[in-house]
Amino acid sequence: MRAMPRIVIPDDEPAVMQPSKAYEKLAGYDVRAYSDRPSGADDLVARIGDAEIVINIRSTSRFTAEVLARCPMLRLISIWGTGTDNVDLAAAQARGIRVTNTPGVAAIAVAEHTLALILAVAKQLVHVDRQVRDQQWPRAMVTQLRGKTLGLIGTGAIGREVASLARGIGMRVIAWTFHPQGDIAEWVRFDEVFRAADVVSVHVRLSSNTVQLIRREHFDLMKPTAMFINTARGAVVKELDLLDALRTNSIAGAGLDVFENEPLPSGSPFFSLSNVVLTPHAAGITPETTEAGLALAIDNVISFIRDSRH
């Protein structure tokens, strides 16, 4: 009888998998879990070199072509989360390594977080909170969202949920996506989203087609009263161009959950901007989505093992 395949979790830090209820699904399997992150490629290979299956928790683990070449037994990478940009997908395909993820499970949480950022920026909540704590009593004229236009870049599961929430508070929704389907929004050209929207919200996945998709020319199209929201991936935006637009008040503000470099380095220019609300790539982190996503990542593993036996 074929031995149980080795499953390695190389990067459960901060720990989410091992304390979860979902982890109990792996009882009886050959599992080795690490409670810290690999220090680099060599350390990652040392951890997963004898694994047939990897459950990837953190995107800081980079499954490059070189790493995959040094793991000849590897047959499956099961990612907790939606993004696959930390895996060289072409190299994985060439080696017959399947890559799975957990799309959709965090859609509601990320959409709610997106709406929270929109409201926080529109109402200047962080800035006003600081002023009140400094014993000021500001009377800022803030943005009312009913009747304003939300422009979506990308309309996957998260984008669709954001559209629903925005309509719920009385916003008009326009959108651009690579493959428009249905009537969730008014479909417009890419540039028109920036030109017409009062709030632009990004929901495309990171790929070779979307790296620095949004640049200075797009911020230049936006109204000076418009806001920019990103809960997708930092690298979709040319960050220096966004910073310039914010510094010069070319746009009114931004709500950002994702960045080119995470965590934000000490002295990040974002820290000095009062028209930005920052969160730590945490939009999808709720107890409900964490358990559902971890369970799906494990189910992908169990299905793979079951299918491999037939």
Could you please describe the fold and organization of this structure?
The chain has helices at 41-48, 65-69, 89-94, 107-122, 125-133, 157-168, 190-196, 216-219, 239-247, 287-308; strands at residues 6-9, 30-33, 53-56, 76-79, 98-100, 149-153, 172-176, 186-187, 199-202, 227-230, 253-256, 276-278. It is of the alpha/beta class and 310 residues long. Helix 4 crosses helix 6. It is elongated, with a radius of gyration of 21 Å. The model has no long low-confidence stretch (mean pLDDT 96).
Comma- or semicolon-separated keywords:
alpha/beta, 32% helix, 15% strand, 2 domains, five-stranded parallel sheet, 12 strands, 310 residues, Rossmann fold, seven-stranded parallel sheet, elongated
Topology:
Layout: E1 6-9, E2 30-33, H1 41-48, E3 53-56, H2 65-69, E4 76-79, H3 89-94, E5 98-100, H4 107-122, H5 125-133, E6 149-153, H6 157-168, E7 172-176, E8 186-187, H7 190-196, E9 199-202, H8 216-219, E10 227-230, H9 239-247, E11 253-256, E12 276-278, H10 287-308
Parallel strand pairs: 1-2, 1-3, 3-4, 4-5, 6-7, 6-9, 7-8, 9-10, 10-11, 11-12
Helix pairs in contact: 4-6
